[in-house]
Amino acid sequence: MAERPAEPGGIDIRRLYKIFGENARACLELVERGMSKAELMARHRHVLGLKDVNIHMKPGRIQVIMGLSGSGKSTLIRHINRLIDPTAGEVWVDGVDVVRMGQSELRQFRRRHTAMVFQKFALLPHRTVLDNAVFGLEIKGLARAAQVESAMRWLARVGLDGFEDRYPNQLSGGMQQRVGLARALANDAPIMLMDEAFSALDPLIRVDMQSVLLDLQKEIRKTIVFITHDLDEALRLGDAIAILRDGEVIQQGTSQDIVLRPADDYVASFVREVNRGRVVKVGAIMGPAPEGAEPPKLAIAAHAVLEDAALLLAGADQTALAVVDGAGRRVGQVDLRRILSAMVTPVAGAGGERREPSAALVDFAPSAGTATPG
Amino acid sequence: MDWLITFPHLSDDLLTAWKKAVDGGFLAFTRAYGDAIEHFFDPLQYFLIHSERTLLGAPWPIVVLVFAAIAWFAGRSWVVVAGTVATLVAIGLFGMWDNTMKTISMIVVCTVLSIVLGIPIGIAMSRSDRLQKAVNPILDVMQTLPSFVYLIPVVMLLGIGKVPGLIAVVIYAIPPMIRLTDLGIRLVDRDVLEAADAFGSSGWQKLVKVQIPLALPTMMAGVNQTIMMALAMVVIASMIGVEGLGQPVLMAISNQYFTLGVMNGLAIVGIAIIFDRVSQAYGRRLQKHRSVVHG
Question: Residue A229 to residues A17, A68, B194: CA-CA distances in angstroms?
Fold first, then answer.
């Protein structure tokens, strides 16, 4: 198999299959020929974990893998540091196939290239916060002084100043996960694997931790693989999102792709509940600036969300906005109608029922002569 | 109908011949290898004699002080320390000091030996289900077989004295150490083990940094049980020449000296309570990090 040119921190998952059961190899062929998860279970008592997963994760970005429980997302993330061995397939990191590493090579890879954050924190209860944070460095065999220096810096960075000597169960869930985060960050690995890292936290704390992570990412620029079952979290964090169902990737793309162009009914049914005004970006729905017409008086950045655009228009006596890119160049235009139609969920997808606006309509005949603001 | 009432058994001649053959074989084995086996246990003999000499040779106030200090460092509780001192003083006043020191020395050596042997066996068992299945029935036999039965071959091999007594006590007292080490390590949270793996721990790092520390409270319960069982064997071990509090009890049984029996029996109870409270207090202190739970 030809090696892809090394791309530091990038992860390339190719044709990855995982079947759980004693006779996984034999079942692989059946799955490759198209046997479904349910059929494999019914006929052969083997569980299909992952089926032909191909994902290219760019370095320095947050790749979200989203799916409901049983979709195989936690199985998938464990293939990146090979806590689970695949039935078939390749996982390339920095020009090396993790699947073919020997035991000691794998240990070195885990020590230097990856760090992991867990859903249930997985802290060592008999160690203090500081001694938990140094764990990865201790395993690497760093000098104690260097361990402590790095751990203290990251503990402070995640807001745990002064908690070094506490034990994990003296802390709240949110604070425990900060320890988990500091432990992973102190490891200074180019890849961070986050397995439902915030799913066990209260909603408010979860949003808080998402902000902490986004804020950190601006400076650390690591390749973060983030597993979640929460679409809002996926849309908020993900530079790229892959949606998994029954072990198969059913859609990959940016948050805009997922929300505006769901690949099938399954994705569409997720997306329906999303607050599009806060997710969809102006740049994703803008039209071309009309030739010759006078440009709108107000402008908005392409990465602003629809709600911002709507707010801007609502406050001004205008119906259209110029869209500008990072350099301030005019790249397009949006008007009220475009914004409105993008903010409401259009239709429920091909198989679903069409959402008719009729219920909300009442007979209303505007009497002639009523002035409509133009 | 006689054959229905009397269970048909192998012929008496056959059984006698079989018993004779086994006994004869074992006797021959004893004669051939008895000395070699005895020498094999010489280090234990040395260990036993020295610990006894140390305890008996030291001035009694120092011994009391050392015990008080151990109690304090293990449990950090004045109640435990006061109880320890009071028990030792009472034992001394009633003239049982020397026998008590001999028994304590024996118990300490037995416990150390049980820990040193039991922990590695327990760890090995926790790593292999097959080994666990193989060892468990052996432990069951060790705990249920009447001690007199395995005293016979031990005495045949090694004669009577301290070392055979020690072996008998360790056979009886080591199973809880092995079982609770195995259990403690098996109960370690899988999530935490996965985290250790994810950070690239080697098997040894995982054992030393994660499994043993987290299993330690359970293992301490094993130590506690081992001490208690070793003390329970003191009287039986005295039958094969182990000196200490067991011998006066044995004498009291055969001569019907009620008071002698009760006093020495109570002395055994006294040191059992000291060892129990001190080791439990230490076990609790190991779990300090579990006590304060976030609300």
Answer: 21, 5, 21
* Residue A296 C-beta-side C-alpha neighbours within 13 Å: 24
Q: How many CB pairs below 8 Å do chains A and B form together?
A: 74
Query: Taking 70 as the threshold, does the pLDDT of residue A353 lie above it?
Result: no
**Do the Cβ atoms of B195 and A111 come within 8 Å?**
no
| CA quadruple A45, A46, A49, A52: dihedral, nearest 10 | -120
| Residues facing residue A47 across a β-bridge | A20
Sign of CA dihedral A319, A325, A330, A332: negative
Using the predicted structure, report yes or no on whether residue A94 has a pLDDT greater than 70: yes
Residues of chain B neighbouring A125 (CB-CB closer than 8 A): 192, 214, 289-290
**B198–A193 C-beta distance less than 8 A:** yes
Q: Does residue B197 register a pLDDT over 90?
A: yes
The angle at the Cα of A269, spanning A46 to A260, to the nearest 5 degrees, equals 120
Chain A residues within 8 A of B197 when measuring between CB atoms:
83, 110
Average confidence score pLDDT of chain A:
87
Phi, psi (degrees; rounded to nearest 5) at A342: -80, -25
Q: Where are the alpha helices (DSSP H) in chain A?
A: 24-32, 37-44, 73-80, 103-112, 129-133, 135-140, 144-157, 173-186, 203-220, 231-237, 255-260, 265-271, 282-285, 306-315, 336-343
Does A82 lie at the interface with B, CB-CB under 8 angstroms?
no
| B250 has a pLDDT exceeding 60 | yes
Bridging pattern class, strands A96-97 and A47-57: unpaired
Calpha distance A353→B193 (Å, rounded): 48
Nearest-by-CA chain B residue for A105? B200
A110 touches chain B (CB under 8 A): yes
A123–B293 CB contact, under 8 Å: no
Contact A169 B191 (CB under 8 A): no
pLDDT tens for residues B212-235? 999 998 999 999 999 999 998 888
Please answer yes or no on whether A122 and B191 come within 8 Å at the CB atom: yes
Number of H helices, E strands in chain A: 15, 13
Buried b (16+ CB within 10 A) or exposed e, A206-245: bebbbebbeebbeeeebbbbbbbebbbbbbbbbebbbbbb
Task: At A185, list the tokens.
Answer: 């960050």
Q: Do A116 and B199 touch (CB under 8 A)?
A: yes
Residue position matching structure tokens 């001999």: B102
pLDDT digit string, tens, across residues B117-151: 999 999 999 999 999 999 999 999 988 888 888 88
Q: Strand, coil or helix: what is A227? A: strand
